[in-house]
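Acetate kinase
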Amino acid sequence: MNILVINCGSSSLKYQLIDMDRKEVLAKGLAERIGIEGGRVKYEATGKDEIVIEEMLADHKAALKIVLDSLKHEEYGAVKSLDEIDAVGHRVVHGGEAFAESVIIDEKVMQAINDNVEIAPLHNPPNIIGIEACKEIMGDVPMVAVFDTAFHQSIPELNYIYALPYEYYENYKVRRYGFHGTSHQYITERAAEMLGKSLNEVNLITCHLGNGSSISAVKGGKCFDTSMGFTPLEGLAMGTRSGDLDPAIIPFIMDKEKLSTEEMSNVLNKKSGVLGVSGVSSDFRDLEEAAEKGNHRAQLALDIFENRVRKYIGAYLTEMDHCDGIIFTAGVGENSITTRERVVDGLKSLGVEIDKEKNNMRGKEAVVSTDASSIPVLVIPTNEELKIAMETAKLV
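Tokens:
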């Protein structure tokens, strides 16, 4: 069975074609700058050179058409015909309370995704556009929605209800939703396998650390708590997002700087985080390089990020009677040797110890803690595309 995985952003479309029988990627790529000048589609079939098609991409449908034409291209394609694509799995950011698992897309599902646009205005609209473009071009090929929020729907009320007037939840569904759920679920399942435990008995702390970062507490294989909230803004300090802060700061800054609601939201989402503190970059590699050269604010930004990670790990350890593993994943978690080391070094009082020799690697599955560590520390590269394909194959 061949599954096409689609992940639509506002001006981009990432994709992979995966052979689920062999769990192999047949082709992958990215369409970017959709609807603006300089559009291009990157396409690479496994074992062949990357192809870059530079063309004005009027909309997501135009981008998808080029992707599908590339997949069946006589010279560099991955399949002979689109008939070889058995289903499409779509990443959908926000499913609200409507979905606790992946679903086959029908009219009711589309309506539910539309209903959540109000609380995910930056993410759900491009997801909808991608689904509609696929339907128009691919006809009756089965399509599945895999929600970033679904894994977190097992969180109990005490962790998803905010201490606000309860009618805000009843009337507007203001609650903790959590994000990066597909990633947290994938690494939870892989960690259980690596630790030799059944999924329903494993307790973990999963750390998805990248430009966007979140941490989850997993009890019995299900999410019990997570750091992102009503939106992906809550929790850790991230690349450009503020994470947790005193809510009173927002009206105070708005008054001092004469900012509108939209302008303040832009500050919190796009000008804060490690970029705001450092004034250097939102890329952690740039920060590490600047810190090594003595840039105080770059080092401060890294210190703040790592301290927040430790705080959440410590807090989540109190929510479970034992922990079978602390997992690092995503761009920073998988690749930053120093970040993992500094985070775990701050957990020594809990008996957690990192093995510097084992930790001296990037992007591979590994146990990086010492044999004496009270809790195993694992690195597991996330694979959201494979997880989406697995969910799609299971349903169709």
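The radius of gyration is 21 Å.
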